[in-house]
Each structure stands twice: as C-alpha cells, then as structure tokens.
Specification:
It is a single chain. The protein is mainly α. It has one domain. Helix content is about 55%, strand content about 10%. The protein is built from 3 helices and 2 strands, in the order βαβαα. It has a two-stranded parallel sheet. Helix 2 packs across helix 3. It is elongated, with a radius of gyration of 14 Å. The mean pLDDT is about 85.
Length: about 60
C-alpha cells in the first residue's frame, strides 16, 4: 500500500505506485481537502465537513497537476 501524502508537484510516487498491480495507491489530495475543511469549518460556521471537503476538492481540481 502506498499513500501519497504530497498533494502538489509532479506526484511521481503516486503515478509509479498506480502502475504497479501489486500495490494499492491512495492520493493525498483527499486528506488535504478534509484537513482544510476541518480547519475552516468552525471558523466559517460550516457544519458538514465531508460535504465541504468534497466541494473544495471539486472547485480546486482544475488547479491540480
């Protein structure tokens, strides 16, 4: 199992892990989005962390490499 904790840059480790059939690769992008949702939720009064993280990921997707 490989969990790419880097969420920017060329993500070479993630791509290499995804090419191998004997590994399960996880992208760190979801963790990044949930972290921001958890941090900003209480400040901005956002009740649903899961929905906020999903929306953040959707809006920021075009900015990913």
């Amino acid at each position: 199992m490989v969990w790419e904790l880097n969420y920017r840059g060329d993500l070479a480790m993630l791509r290499q892990a995804e090419e191998r059939k004997d590994l399960v690769a996880y992208d760190g992008w979801g963790l990044f989005c949930h972290g921001w949702a958890a941090a900003l939720g209480p400040i901005l009064g956002l009740a649903d962390e899961v929905a906020t993280a999903a929306r953040f990921a959707e809006l920021a997707a075009p900015l990913r490499p």
